[in-house]
Every structure is written in structure tokens, then in C-alpha cells.
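Hi Y.,

Following your request, here is the sequence exactly as I used it, all 141 residues.
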Amino acid sequence: MASLNSVFLIGNLTRDPELKFVPGGTAVTNLRLAVNERYKDSSGEMKDVACFLTVVVWGKLAESCSQYLSKGSPLFVEGNLQSRSWQAQDGQKRNVLEVRARRVQFLGKGSNKNQDDQGNDVDNMQNQDNDVAPADEEVPF
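Below is the corresponding structure, written out as C-alpha cells. Let me know if you'd prefer a different format.
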């Protein structure tokens, strides 16, 4: 049986990126993304609904996101859904569904915000370290 796990999102960051490092030294950044949907309700009135998602970015792409993005930044994310669970300090089992980014494209235009230290364009970056976070890797958030 075929299966597909692919997500494409365009939205804005609701807070600054959170960069951390796992014990092995690999960078991981959590992005909190708001994706808006506009629709007409049964009375014909336009409604706006926001969906808030956590996007997890690994490796060099995580470091670039942390460096060049900030609250309010518009971006495009391509990735897949990922579920993880853990035991909380209160003993309860917690579960979360997140988006694991494969590609992040910065949509905002700024002065030098979209260039790295060497002047390279970082608007369209892909995660070259797709295998840096094994399924059993603990995300430090």
C-alpha cells in the first residue's frame, strides 16, 4: 500500500526561533508558525481562522533560520508530519504532532536579512542534513 507524508505551508512566525543543540552537537530550531485560512461562513460573512504549528528544523538549516528569521517573518515550509511522545516531569505521557522541515524559503524582503556573512542568498535553503535526527533523538524543547 502506498503512503505519502508531505506538508507545504506558508505562514508567519509567531515568535523568534528557538535554537538549541542536542548532546551530539547538532543544531535544532523550533519555529512557531501561524497559517491563516479565510472562508465564508453559512451567512456569507468572511471569517479568518489561524492554525498554529510547530516546525522543527535540523542542522545547518536550523542555524540559518535562527540567524535570519524573527517574529513576524513570512516563510514557506516543505516537510513532513512527525509524531513524538515523552514522559513529562509530572509522570504523564505527552504526545505532539510537529512538522519536520526539509526546506524553508524566506519570503520577506529586507536589507541584508536574506544574505549570509559572505553575501550569499539564503532565501531558498534546503536541509542538507536530512539524516541528522534519528527517530529516537530527543528534541531539547
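The mean pLDDT is 83.

Thanks again,
Q.
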